[in-house]
Specification:
By secondary structure, the chain is an alpha+beta fold. It has one domain (6-92). 33% of the residues lie in helices and 32% in strands. It is built from three helices and five strands; from the N terminus they run βββααββα. It has helices at residues 38-42, 52-55, 71-92; strands spanning 6-14, 19-28, 33-37, 58-59, 63-66. It has a five-stranded antiparallel sheet.
Length: 94
């Protein structure tokens, strides 16, 4: 999906799972923005080193909600996304 209200990203076709795997998405809601990152659901150990501040933004097992721009947390989330991508590609497509 790619629209003003939502964007999602799937990985390539996985021989292991016999389908394309959902990686993540962003959804713009009325009062907040949600960032879904499936690798943290698939590999929960990725969450062991996140800050308590970022943890406060988690809803469920793979969703982060933000009502305001928080640059330092976005930078941390960017690093977590990079780690998740590297793990996702290594374990699901190798």
């Amino acid at each position: 999906m790619d629209s003003p209200a939502a964007y999602s990203l799937e990985g390539p076709y996985s021989e292991k799972w016999k389908k394309e795997l959902f990686f993540g998405s962003v959804q713009v809601k009325k009062n907040y923005v949600s960032f879904y990152l499936m690798p943290v659901y698939m590999y929960p150990d990725l969450l062991k080193k996140i800050s308590p501040e970022l943890k406060k933004h988690m809803q469920g097992k793979s969703c982060f909600n933000f009502k305001t721009v928080e640059k330092s947390l976005f930078e941390e989330l960017s690093q977590l996304t990079k780690q998740g991508f590297e793990r996702f590609m290594k374990e699901e497509y190798s």
